[in-house]
Amino acid sequence: MPEARVLVVEDDPHISKLVKYNFEKAGFSCLTTITGEEALNILDKDSFDLIILDVMLPKMDGFETCRLLKQDRRFAAIPVMILTARGEEVDRVVGLELGADDYIVKPFSPRELVLRAKAVLRRGQPKEGNAKEILSAGDIVVDLPRHKITVHKKVVELSPMEFNLLAILVERKGRVQSREQLLTDVWGLSSEVTTRTIDTHVKLLRQKLGKIGDKIETVRGIGYKIDDEA
Q1: Which of 7, 15, 108, 153 could bridge 48 with an S-S bond, Cβ 3.0-4.6 Å?
Q2: How many CB atoms are closer than 10 A to CB 194?
Q3: Domains along the chain?
Q4: Which of 58, 42, 116 is CA-nearest to residue 32?
Q5: What angle do CA 172, 93, 35 make, to 5 degrees?
């Protein structure tokens, strides 16, 4: 994977310096800023592969920044990792509902942060040597190389996590996937993510898919599945 560019939005200079040092040591290119407003201005002029975002920022907080990023088609596909001292489950759920790809609580291990960043970036890459690059379930088509979802031949805009979640359900159509299995396969190293997060993402995924979203079936007490006739 070529050198990835990371934008760190963190107002604590010590943490910002620590994060920048560890990402650059791992071969990343890293730029730091201290406010959400500055981050949006930077993204207007430059491109990045990943955003590390604090929540408790001056003026506009990290949740609002994340919301604006995910609502803007220019930036919606950029993975966002929230790095914050706010570790309550309600905060994690809010962050993930807004489209964040990972949620890490301070104090944190710099090495784990970099490893999880690499995992997030890998999820957005097409899988080499995949035996089947175009997946389908009825009118839902998943184009893995192009990272594109179409329903009735119309493109549906999804976040990276929503894309991966739907791709797994379509690839394993007809088979029930437990919440725990989906957590492992979609979020990888994100051990803090709870099974409630899966329910939240499935809800958002159904909304974005429209009427056909109802074809993602809930299997009570276990998880979810999608049938071939979707």
Answers
A1: 7
A2: 16
A3: 5-123 (3.40.50.2300), 134-226 (1.10.10.10)
A4: 42
A5: 120
